[in-house]
Amino acid sequence: MSDKFSAVWISHTSIKDFLECPRSYFLKNIYKDPKTGHKVKIMSPPLALGQAVHEVVESLSVLPRDKRFETPLIEKFEAAWKKISGKRGGFRNLDIESRYKQRGIEMLKKISSNPGPLKRLAVKIRMDLPHFWLSEKDNIILCGKIDWLEYIPEQDGVHIIDFKTGKNEEDNNSLQLPIYSLLVHNCQDRKAVKASYWYLEQSSELTSCPLPNLDDSFDKVLKIAKQIKLARQLEKFKCPQGGCHACKPYESLLDGKGEFVGLDEYKQDVYVLFDEEKNENSEIL
């Protein structure tokens, strides 16, 4: 019998973690510190930047279109940045923090000067965390937050938009749009008619993407979801490389090398890892 509390919940992020390294998936999505009973998270500058920018964008998504830009985006960004300033954002020094912060400011300037779909009608799914039964038989739920759903009146449809704050473009084999398409199809009534990424670092315009086939998307996601469920049942989460870039930082955390900086909104213990041997005078951005 299906049960939301015993179900395996999966998302684009957790699937990506599992495909990259099962051990990393375990440490990020299942492991809890025996002392606190909380999950753990490692904060880094790129993660902090993405968090602050997405917080500003999300604040717009709940407002009527004529109210979205009443408060300057930079003002909202300053408030969001305070939450991740200093060590809480994984910044080793003020110089690195100021450079990341400036990147965020430039991204939001692009949105302010060319808001495009953010000035038009939007659809908001009435769920704090959109989710649906991917398979009641297998007791698996698919969940995820979509950055923006623009309403397209001519087709009574929606345009899926995802904001990117990193330097790299999404891989062609990424399951992000397939997962978002499934969520749109199952969590509200309008059909997805368009999909785009907005690479805020590089462009003031959206990058259009082909809409994935729903049946193919369902089959791909369910196949991986079943693999995740089996790994959880067998408690087998081995790194295929015996230690990789995805799981090694968390192994260091378990070895006591992290510095605790607080709790996040989900009551996860947030840590930072500073490599003492790293050159403090330069940073790859």
Shape annotation: globular
Structural class: alpha/beta
Distance between the termini: 49 Å
Overall helicity: 25-40%
Question: If you compute it from the alpha carbons, what radius of gyration comes out, rounded to the nearest whole angstrom?
Answer: 20 Å
CATH class: Alpha Beta
Q: Which strand order do you get reading across the main beta sheet?
A: 5-6-7-8
The number of distinct structural domains comes to: 1
CATH architecture annotation name: Alpha-Beta Complex
Question: What is the average per-residue confidence, as pLDDT, rounded to a whole number?
Answer: 93
Main sheet record: 4 strands, mixed
Strand content: 15-25%
User: In the CATH scheme, what's the topology name?
Assistant: Lambda Exonuclease, Chain A
List keywords for this structure.
alpha/beta, Lambda Exonuclease, Chain A, four-stranded mixed beta sheet, three-stranded mixed beta sheet, 10 strands, 36% helix
